[in-house]
Amino acid sequence: MNEWEETLEDRYYDWPLFTRILRYLRPYGKLVVLSVFLLLAVSLLNLAGPYLTKIAIDDHIKVGDYAGLDRIALIYIVVLVTAFVCQFFQYYTIQFIGQRVMYDLRTQVFGHLHKMSFKFFDRNPIGKMITRTVNDIEVLNEMLTSGLILVFSDLFTLVGIFFMLAYLDWRLMLVVCAVFPFLYLATNAYRTRARDALRKNRAHVTKLNTLLEENLSGMNTVQMFNQEDNRYREFTGVSRSKLSEDLRSLFYNSVYLPSIDVFSAIGMGLVIWYGGGRFVQNEVELGVLVAFMQYLHKFFEPIRDLAEKFNIIQTAMASSERIFELLDTPEDMQNPAQPKPLPKIEGRVEFENVWFAYKNEDYVLQDVSFALEPGESLAIVGATGSGKTTIVNTLYRFYDIQKGAIRVDGASLAEVDKYALRSQMALVQQDVFLFARNILENIRLGNTDLGVEEIESIAHAVNSHHFIENLPHKYEQPLMEGGNSLSLGQKQLLSFARALAFNPRILILDEATSNVDTETEKKIQDAMQKLIRGRTSIIIAHRLSTLQHVDKVLVLRHGRVVEFGTRQELIKQRGTYYNLLKLQSDLTKGP
Ligand SMILES: Nc1ncnc2c1ncn2[C@@H]1O[C@H](COP(=O)(O)OP(=O)(O)OP(=O)(O)O)[C@@H](O)[C@H]1O
Q: Which of 448, 557, 579, 589 is 20 to 30 A from 472, comparing alpha carbons?
């Protein structure tokens, strides 16, 4: 099995899984009972038709009793209308229940995903999560609405017909039974093959979603490196495999479904041959023969559906297993049971002998210690991969550290409410994520306490107002997902406004000034000065010229602190920071 394939074992008998699915029906218990009741009523009413035909022929037509025939016709119409009404309500209630359960599950999965840590998302591709939240839940719905309950009604109908056949003429029934072994073999062969095709189909859907998500979010890179053809080939490869599996399923359906008609015809033939002979010998009534044939016809309808429905159930069991697996993945970065409240913090930050690894013992931060007083600003300097962003990730508690302690205002991060902590921090990254809403909502991020005027003055403070005013719809300007309609510098300024709107006590700027033109950089620099004033700030930047106003500098090498102090102190030391500074100023001077 490759990484995309999903298991689809025989799971009809996985009772715990089954009861767990049924638990989602509990809030709609009364409706479920009503639906089952209506379904049984429809099955019973459907059984009445052929029997009424028998009475009409044998008791009324044969003896010329027209008044009796009218009565039977009337009963027949009443039965039909009642069956129609019952069927309507049954269909509506079961679909209603299915939609509600899907809604409940979708929101539960979505909510759960938001509790997952970065570690979880490092391991699970987004396309897979989309498949869980959308496709798998859809499959489960199919099982609830058209699989599970209808299987019971089909089985009920089959048993009912069987009894009616035996009641009408047991000898005739035994003759018809001759086709059953062949029917069983055909159904079984179809079911196992169709199940295999379904399993592959599910794996392909997951892979297609993952590829699609990857390509759409990485479209820039794809086009930049002329990867369109490669990616197209990869996508069409999977798509073709899915097509061939779908065609295989189609082939099985095309063989199986008409084969049921053949068995039905053979059964009918046997009835005409054997029953007709007995009718000629006056051993059986004509009405019985006609009713028998009608029942037999009805008998093959549920059989045709049953194999398909069993597969639906099986796929849904596998889907639900995956959904529950996701829901059961514990929140690995849980808040402590009794988190220390974190009222308005002053902003003291302390790292004490911090050790951290993303994986196993592969330590990215090694014995990192430093402290910042409230309102102080710190620049973290170091080569690519030295662990600068990792310091931010651990301070935000996106990941838990393995050894040491990180404290904010003296409280260890492991003890405080992480939501309260994050609500007093703001992070501005180089890659700014903007939601598909308008500018105003992207700055305010749901904080409705902030009025439009306040947002405008915040934008003013961080030099964003000017460009927003120049947009066609100003603050109402809708942004595409990812904010692609804005330039990099504009996005950066907007994210400054967002950070200021948050009014954080601790502010982190991660490479916030790279990749913009000199004029925008000046604006960003100016905004940055305003933003960090009075707040504890951590700034990560490769260009040291942008860090002239910071109080302290920390130099990292391979995850270890090699220098920490004020700029002047580090310059005096003539160590790494001094050399970097010299190197960069030589570079800017040019040859
Ligand atoms: N999610 C992750 N899972 C595993 N390893 C990671 C993860 N993120 C970063 N790393 C590794 O941790 C190390 C430090 O990464 P980090 O992003 O902190 O470096 P950085 O100093 O910020 O680099 P840059 O200046 O390039 O942004 C790198 O070796 C990187 O490969």
A: 448
